């Protein structure tokens, strides 16, 4: 399991970053000061560092410079000011990527994955031929691409993927994805299926993962 260190003094943001990265399968350590993070990094080597620019104790710029003198650990710098990104790039301080606040937490996870695939190819999981559903992040991934899902789409895809090739009628789908037992028409189910299909096609145009079975319902058809 890859180990990510987050150095961020905004507690709420740091905890959200931690939760999203943990949901994506990473081990996460938090620091809210630059000096305490630097002290820890002198004896530890994480797989990636998410480093805020403005920090108490020691700012992110100085911490990045100090770290680069002895380590090649990948670094994603974060800052609240757009103009700082251009300045940081111009300084060539050695960061691998930059994010300007406020940023999407899913975007952070996506960038972490891209960098780790490049820097730790031996630790990368085998490439799946089928979409991988991440229910915690409400997204589905295939290779280096991902799309966001609604909660209904998450439950729908989970149902179909957990029972590949099994045919589900519209009534069965309604029973599984609507916990409050609301009254839903067949057309609503068809609409959800249509939208989910479109999103899966963004990940793979050459394979239709959800098949319609005339007069019966729908089934999930994975690649062999």
UniProtKB/TrEMBL annotation:
<feature type="DNA-binding region" description="OmpR/PhoB-type">
    <location>
        <begin position="118"/>
        <end position="222"/>
    </location>
</feature>
<feature type="modified residue" description="4-aspartylphosphate">
    <location>
        <position position="52"/>
    </location>
</feature>
<dbReference type="Pfam" id="PF00072">
    <property type="entry name" value="Response_reg"/>
</dbReference>
<dbReference type="GO" id="GO:0006355">
    <property type="term" value="P:regulation of DNA-templated transcription"/>
</dbReference>
<feature type="domain" description="Response regulatory">
    <location>
        <begin position="3"/>
        <end position="116"/>
    </location>
</feature>
<keyword id="KW-0597">Phosphoprotein</keyword>
<feature type="domain" description="OmpR/PhoB-type">
    <location>
        <begin position="118"/>
        <end position="222"/>
    </location>
</feature>
<dbReference type="GO" id="GO:0032993">
    <property type="term" value="C:protein-DNA complex"/>
</dbReference>
<dbReference type="InterPro" id="IPR039420">
    <property type="entry name" value="WalR-like"/>
</dbReference>
<dbReference type="InterPro" id="IPR016032">
    <property type="entry name" value="Sig_transdc_resp-reg_C-effctor"/>
</dbReference>
<dbReference type="InterPro" id="IPR036388">
    <property type="entry name" value="WH-like_DNA-bd_sf"/>
</dbReference>
<dbReference type="GO" id="GO:0005829">
    <property type="term" value="C:cytosol"/>
</dbReference>
<keyword id="KW-0902">Two-component regulatory system</keyword>
<dbReference type="InterPro" id="IPR001867">
    <property type="entry name" value="OmpR/PhoB-type_DNA-bd"/>
</dbReference>
<dbReference type="GO" id="GO:0000976">
    <property type="term" value="F:transcription cis-regulatory region binding"/>
</dbReference>
<dbReference type="Pfam" id="PF00486">
    <property type="entry name" value="Trans_reg_C"/>
</dbReference>
<dbReference type="InterPro" id="IPR001789">
    <property type="entry name" value="Sig_transdc_resp-reg_receiver"/>
</dbReference>
<keyword id="KW-0238">DNA-binding</keyword>
<protein>
    <submittedName>
        <fullName>Possible baeR Response regulators consisting of a CheY-like receiver domain and a HTH DNA-binding domain</fullName>
    </submittedName>
</protein>
<keyword id="KW-0804">Transcription</keyword>
<dbReference type="InterPro" id="IPR011006">
    <property type="entry name" value="CheY-like_superfamily"/>
</dbReference>
<keyword id="KW-0805">Transcription regulation</keyword>
<dbReference type="GO" id="GO:0000156">
    <property type="term" value="F:phosphorelay response regulator activity"/>
</dbReference>
């Amino acid at each position: 399991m890859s180990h990510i260190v987050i150095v961020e003094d905004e507690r709420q943001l740091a905890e959200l970053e931690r939760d999203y990265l943990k949901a994506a399968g990473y081990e996460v350590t938090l620091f809210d000061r630059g000096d305490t993070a630097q002290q820890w990094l002198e004896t530890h080597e994480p797989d990636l560092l998410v480093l805020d620019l403005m920090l108490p104790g020691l700012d992110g710029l100085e911490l990045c410079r100090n770290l680069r003198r002895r380590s090649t650990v990948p670094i994603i710098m974060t800052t609240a000011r757009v103009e700082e990104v251009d300045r940081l790039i111009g300084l060539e301080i050695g960061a691998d990527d930059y994010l300007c606040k406020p940023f999407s937490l899913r975007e952070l996870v996506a960038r972490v994955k891209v960098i780790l695939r490049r820097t730790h190819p031996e630790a990368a999981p085998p490439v799946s031929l089928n979409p991988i559903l991440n229910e915690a992040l409400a997204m589905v991934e295939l290779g280096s691409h991902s799309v966001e899902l609604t909660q209904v789409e998450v439950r729908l895809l989970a149902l179909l993927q957990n029972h590949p090739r099994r045919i589900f009628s519209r009534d069965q789908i309604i029973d599984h994805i609507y916990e409050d037992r609301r009254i839903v028409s067949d057309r609503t189910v068809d609409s959800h299926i249509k939208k989910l299909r479109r999103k899966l096609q963004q990940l793979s145009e050459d394979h239709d993962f959800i098949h319609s079975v005339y007069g019966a319902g729908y089934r999930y058809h994975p690649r062999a």
